[in-house]
Sequence to fold (400 residues):
Amino acid sequence: MLFKYKAVDEKGINKEGEIDAANRDVAISGLQRRGLIVISIKDEGEKKSFLSFGGKIPMKDVVILSRQISTLFEAQVSALKAFTMLASNAENKLLAKKLTIISDDLQAGISISGALAKHPEVFSNFYVNMVKVGEETGKLNETFDHLANYLNRQYALTAKTKNALIYPAFVIFTFFVVMGLMFVVVIPKLSAIILDSGQEPPIYTKIVIALSNFFVDYGFLVIIFLILSGIWAWRLSATEKGKEYIDKMRLSIPAVGNLYKKLYLSRIADNMDTMLSSGIPIVRAIDITSDVVGSRVYQEVLKKVADGVKSGLSFSAAFERHKEQVPGIMVQMVKVGEETGSLGKILKTLADFYKREVDDAVDTLVGLIEPVMIVVLGLGVGVLLVSVLMPIYNLAGGIQ
Fold:
C-alpha cells in the first residue's frame, strides 16, 4: 500500500513524501525508525507506478540477495539489521522497496518467513518454506546458503536453455526479413524485365512474381495482421488456458520438447532433494515443487503424485502412473532410493544427470540448427533468384 505522510524530523524541519508499506502501522513504524515524528498519514491505495505495474526482479538478484543474507547471518548480524542494510544498498529499486517493507514487518514482530511470504512475486512458496524450516532448526545461514546454491543452479540451467533458443529465433527472423526484402525490392525489378520482354515465363516464375505482387500491394496488411496476431498471442499467453496450451505445445515440439522435459525433470529432482534434505515431509515437498516447476503439465502430474502418496502409494509407484512425462529410469532410481533409504542422494544424482542431459541437448540443438538454418536460408534465396534469373538468361541467349 502507498501512504502519503507529513512529518517533522529531529531538527524540526517539515517533511512530506510517500512510503510503500504493508499497512498503516508498518508505515508509521518505518517513518519513526527514520527519526521522523508523524503528523499525518493518508492511505493512497495501491502504488501505481511503472515499477509496480511491470517491474520484475531478476532471479540473479535473488541469488545474490540469498548469498548476502547467509553471509550476514553467519556473521551474527540480526535479521532486522541485515534486511535494513540490504535494503539501503540494493541496486534494484523495486527490490530495495520490497526489502524495506520486509524490514518494517520484522520490526513489527513478524517472522522472516512470514515477511517473505507477503511477496510471492519475489520469493516463491519453495523459498518461503525453506526459510521456515531454517527458522525452526536455527540454521538460517545454512538455509540461505542452500537457497543461493539451488537458485544459482536453476538460473544457470534456465538461462542456458533460453539462450540456446535465441539464436534459432534470430536466424528464423532474419530468414523472413531477407525473403520479405527479396519479394518487395529485388523480385519486382527483375520481373519487370521479364514482363517487358513479352516472353512467356515458366509456371514457377509466375508463382514467384504473383507472390511478389501480393506482398508489394498488400504487404502492409500482412504486417498489420502479424502485429495483431502477436498481440492476441501475447494476451492469450497471459491466461491460464493459454499458458497450459503453450506448455503442452512446448513439450510436443521435436527436439525442443525433449530439452524442456529434461529441464523440468532436473528441476523436480533438485527441488525434492533440497527440501527432503532440509526435513520437509515428502507430500509437502511434492506440493511445493508443483508450484515452482514452471510447467502446467508437470504441475498437474505432481499434484496427482501427491494425491497418490497421500492415499498410501510410494513415491515411485505414484510416479510410475505418468510414464509419458516421467521416464522409466527416473522411476526405477526413485524406487531404489526408497528401498535403500537414500532417496535424497538418489534425487541429487538424478538432478545432476538431467542437468548434464540438458547441457548436452542444448549443445546438440545449437550445433544442428545453425547449419540447417543457413542451408534453408540459402536455398530460399537461391530458389527465388533462379526463378527470375533463368528467364532473363534465356532471354539474353535468344537475343544473341
